[in-house]
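Q:
Got a chain?
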Amino acid sequence: MTGMKKCRKVVTARLVDARSKLKNVKAKKREVDNYIEEKDMREEIGKLLIANRNLEEKALNLSTENSKLHPGDLVVGIGGDKGGDTTKLCLEIQNVDNPNNPQGILLLGWYYGHDNHQGLEKYMSEVFKQINALEYVEFDMPSYGKQRRKVFKKAIGDCLFITAMLNLPGPSSLNPCFICDYKFTNHGSEKALVGTSPFDQSFKLRTIDSILAKGRPLLLMNPEDIGIPPIHTIHGVAQKYVLDPLFALANRLDAPGKDLPRSLSEQKSYFKDLILREETSLARCHDVKNGISRCELLISTYENVQKPGAKIKKNASKCSSVACVPHLVKNKKLFDPKAYFHCSSCNGFFHYHCINVVTDDEKLSLVNGLGSRKCTSCELGHPATLDDHIRILAGAKTSLAQVSDSEELEYCALNVERKEIEAQMKESKGFYRRKLEKVFRNLGCDHRIWYQEMTGNQIRTLLREKNVKRIVDVFPYSLEIMWISEIMGELAFLMTHSNNADKSDFLIDEIEKSIKRLTIVLKELHKETGNDG
């Protein structure tokens, strides 16, 4: 058996050592990959952009492939995203019939790390320098001869990636917009609300010069030439101002007597606060019960000490009280012989239970200086006897018994409410919640409400006209559900046209009208909702 144990220890130690070495090897591999990738960016991608070889080849392929490349300037989008452990930087030719055609996408490079300014600057700064210097491309086109196209550059990607390329504060800052300098806060008394925020107005535009004066932008272009990422934006608006309100409405309808807050975020906060209140109430119940037990044990001990011929053990931790008996009580776990109270009147030091402090709540108040107290003798005005202590403890026990009843009633009420809200919000046991989630499941859009959000494809599915009607039909008619329906309709129209295709003047006017209608409904329905940008 001893040999087996030794063998097991040796094997375990070697496994741990092997895992540690493997972890170090992986870390070294990442360092090497990043070095190689950075070197490749400077040597290969750098040479690629200077000579325009791959970009010219892409343009030529698109121009000869069913005339998919439009005439005029070559419009290219510069951007990227983080997937898994890697961040990718890409170039996309946009003025084509199908902007998402793989033939029009060029991978500029990738690295292990986050898609922030620090990572992009470390691994992609040389690439950005050459992107900024790229002005035109030339390529031979069959039957047309040599083509020279001016390159018009745009920033693409989500808001986080765009702000990283421009070295701007980002979505969580006071001025998160990368186009203008509009400032607002989401916290405190100055919290910006949808109903009153002028987010539909134009403010002082940022310029590349103003950004250069404060930071180190990698992509040199004026922010006014950068469009917001429509799919990401619509996804965020749909999640916060459509899906969350739908589930919040279902929760309120399923719990009519609970007076739940209006928004889902406030409902979650209410539920967390309810859990805290329940835990606090339970702790008070235990404290009161322990206080009653301490009273009973101390009274019993004092009575035993008063009996004729009682044998009293020597007290190694005696305090200044003549009634110091912590060494004689039976359940010593309920008493702390190391904690002392200093009486400022007689300058004595007393165990808390020796001055009849029997609850942790009262003890903490004295420790934190929130209570005013003297020792028992100083409060009585004469040396306290055992009978005095018994009388005071008996009165404390009676008072605690009354408090215990009210505390238990409060705890039971909180416990019942917490279970009901939990069943509604986390277990989906309410009628409208079950009905709504069933519709989502049937549409392939199972909403994982508590921890995750829907994907972009799920949002696209939900915003189809027939699916909007199925969702709205879950609820009884109300002005609120009609407004939510209008928001979904406008988002559906905007998502339909959220692509890189050229837009006619008429379509641009229609998109502007849709955004104005959306703004009006959002401000009306979500007057008191925070503006998250």
